[in-house]
């Protein structure tokens, strides 16, 4: 197809990377990217279903596209991603001006669907194809120096609040040789940082049986092998499950010098009663014990987390338990969420859904507590001199945004080419970023 395409992405890194692959397919087909919706021949909304406001955003955006489509009947509107998988036919019922609905498993069929839409009108493919690992697609990557690499899709857990297993299916791991070949190719092109992606990334390989092999290619082994790739300087991964930070994974992290000292360790709740109702496999003391073990094995590791406030049945006492774990765990940062009932999940039909104003009040208390801890942890960085990777321009026109191995954002006052490693001296701290200045190479001993 000729002309320009525009992709709007909602949600997590998995979706961001899927958008890179959508962009890769459209570019390979002869199209060019645009930022201006008025120029676009194809608009793709790559959607998220994790919380309710994500649904609202999709239908709001489709509302804005309706008059554009009326003015320009050649415009093709595509809805992809988790909401496409979840809402399926409802999308074209509610918004008949949508040309293509493509589910998470059917992404490789996108070009075909667009071609069929040209001839035959609206198309939908939400079938669950399990034979094709979706990463075997071209990707139009955003940066030349860092890249996401998909290692597994889907999730075999059944957390009662979560829609992911419904919209992404059971876990399917990518062959270790394919992952390594992609990382090697990226490193040859100048990529210095990769982030390994999966819904439950540290159970990588558990679904794979290798003919003739006595062991499966598990996550620890993958980390060690990616660590051997020449040219690469940093390895990250997301999103892991605390239960699957097994000792072999922690050892592999500690012993692989390219694996960054940052762990995302989603708590969800600090109450054992709520964790049980969420069907999370750990309890508060176990979680804190794992955290101690990680901190003992990986000095100066930074820890981030996810917390849900207002899960059905959460009492004031349960919430106090969450605040207590947050006090004790000293997270560097936290993504805090208000519970959002997702139709079809077990939690959505549980009794004792918590009123919005109660959730909001608890949420505000949690944000204040974690904000103070994040600030205290950030201030402890003042005076240190970490290596940072420059990512782009900072908040002021002439400044730079860079990132430490521990995933802390550092604002530097001087403009520096993205993709460059420099040493920064940390001079200031806020809860969500640090300020620093470049240490001239001559000053380094
Ligand atoms: N696999 C990861 C794990 O096991 O923790 C989580 C991935 S999920 C895409 C990202 C985060 O969204 C979760 O950790 C959770 O905190 C939040 N989340 C998921 N479902 C939610 C819901 N129904 N309401 C509010 N937050 C939710
Ligand atoms: Fe959702 Fe993560 Fe639980 Fe899987 S492990 S069901 S992705 S919260």
Topology (elements, then pairings):
Elements lengths: L3 E6 L3 H16 L3 E2 L6 E8 L4 H20 L4 E6 H6 L1 H6 L5 E3 L7 H11 L2 E3 L20 E5 L1 E2 L10 H5 L3 E2 L2 H13 L4 E5 L21 H9 L6 E5 L8 H9 L6 E3 L7 H7 L5 H14 L4 E8 L6 H14 L3 E6 L17 H24 L7 E7 L6 E5 L4 E4 L8 E9 L4 E5 L7
Parallel strand pairs: 1-2, 1-3, 3-4, 4-5, 5-6, 7-10, 10-11, 12-13, 13-14, 17-19
Antiparallel strand pairs: 8-9, 15-16, 15-18, 16-17, 18-19
Helix pairs in contact: 8-9, 12-13
Outline the structure in words.
This protein is an alpha/beta fold and 445 residues long. 35% of the residues lie in helices and 21% in strands. The protein contains 13 helices and 19 strands. A 6-stranded parallel β-sheet has the order 2-1-3-4-5-6, with helices on both faces. A 5-stranded mixed barrel has the order 15-16-17-19-18. A 3-stranded parallel β-sheet has the order 7-10-11, with helices on both faces. β1, α1 and β2 form a beta-alpha-beta unit. α8 packs parallel to α9 and α12 runs parallel beside α13. The protein binds S-adenosylmethionine (SAM) and iron/sulfur cluster. The site of S-adenosylmethionine has 18 residues, from β13.
